[in-house]
Amino acid sequence: MTIHKEGYTSIALCVLFIFIINAFTHYYFSDKAWLVWGIYILSFLLFIIILQFFRNPKITPTINDEYVICPADGKVVVIEETVETEFLKDKRIQVSIFMSPVNVHVNRNPISGMVKYFKYHPGKYLFAWNPKSSTDNERTTILVENNRGVPVLFRQIAGALARRIVWYVKEGDQVKQGDQFGFIKFGSRVDVFLPLGTKINVNLGDAVKGGITVLANLKG
Questions:
Q1: Positions marked catalytic
Q2: pLDDT tens per residue across span 75-118
Q3: Three-class SS of 39-91
Q4: Are 158 and 138 in contact (CB under 8 A)?
Q5: 82 — phi, psi (to 5°)?
Q6: Domain 67-217: assigned CATH number
Q7: Domain boundaries, the chain
Q8: Which of 19, 113, 116, 150 has the fewest other C-beta atoms within 10 Å?
């Protein structure tokens, strides 16, 4: 288990905050042992929470050109036919994964291919399970086309707590299935838009693993 590079600054700020709080408590309340130990315990719990949020476990991705693998850890909250209005402008099957603060927040490429479209959208911070979060929240939109010309569009969506989206791709990049394409801090959602006729392998409420769970099988 390693710590993701996106966590270095947050962890450093957490340690600084803990140091200041503990120093303040010792200086002004050293005679109150119950308070000092209470701050110790709360400081330890805060550090563990921040540390686990930025964990970056080593995985062996599920690699197969016919698969669409899950881009993030979390729970499946949407499976429905919808119209993708930003780029494809046609009917797609939308599969959405909600990432709680306790999930690993690394985002991974669902397929291999070329990034044909990328755009960052500033926006609101509605709760990630709100249907309007897909169109109103801060988000990125990425479309990757595989070597058979099949496009898969996916979005990183900020939630009420997630206020920083990080991405590592741009238009024209060749990406590999399972590799990291981004990171979202503190609770969020990822939407995947698949061609009609795609075989969906998950159900609503399923717990899924980024880079491992096979969301769907693309048509040949």
A1: 188
A2: 999 999 999 999 999 999 999 999 887 888 899 999 999 999 99
A3: HHHHHHHHHHHHHHHCEECCCCCCCCCCEEECCCCEEEEEEEEEEECCCCCEE
A4: yes
A5: -150, 175
A6: 2.70.70.10
A7: 2-56, 67-217
A8: 19
